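Question: I have long wanted to understand how a fold can be written as tokens. Here is the record:
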Amino acid sequence: MTILSPNHLLEQTILDFTTATTRAALGGVENQRKTASLAHQFFVSLLDESNPAEKEKLTLFKDCLHALDAASVLASTKPRTEFIHLSVLQQVLRLADLLSIILSFVDSPQTLHAMTLVSRTIHRSAQARLWSYPRDLNTIELQVSFAFGASISGALSELLGLHVKRLHTLRLPTGENDRLLVKIAQLCPHVKDVRLFWADTGYDSDEMAVVTPELLFTLDSFLSALPHCTNLSLENYYHVPLDFTPTFSPNAHVPFTRLLSLHIQGFSFYFPIIMRGVREGGVLRHLEIGMNTFDTF
């Protein structure tokens, strides 16, 4: 199955997981229904109905969502007799709060990974810490897995994307992962440290990148979805001269008004907008400008 582009195949493990949880949910396994719904919503949010190659798959996921909604309505009519009794101690200090305090003293990812294997409760608490600083999303496979995991995590606990503080990722030169990048940013609204790397361009490439209206829209959508970003790095965008007059949204400069630190390499077409935001915000403390940032055409 293709997603975003015929050149990018969605990992089979994610499809298998979605299929299995959907079957379980439709078969009456109550705790799988929310997971299955979130999985299908993930695909629906990314697929483009105007693209013939994606429309059929989008229809399939929407049909599955309708079936899950119908099953949920039927389940809600059943009487619930389950009660949870909390002791006085549990009411004063819940286990999740206690674990959060303990885990705040653990700074080793390896230790946190090991703790996730102890129990489901510790797993959930440790996961939040691990997701705060995820690995660099430097392949589309990692990006898809990350976005899918963040999307369905709400079925088991709170949305783990809300804990992400650092987001280092890349954009493919052809823009085939644009929608995915915007989706990831929307899932991680509290990120403070952002690095957007332009893949496979520069002096070592056979050809340079092309600035398009689609790129401008992606940059605007991506950065606008990260209202808490204070440290930004835009790197490796060496591009050919523009054959059109770039048009930016009225608020394109707003994400840069909050920056405390900025590193930029290339992206000369974007530099005036960036500096407008920096001047308006007046809080920038560190500025590092790399090569090809002041290109003139």
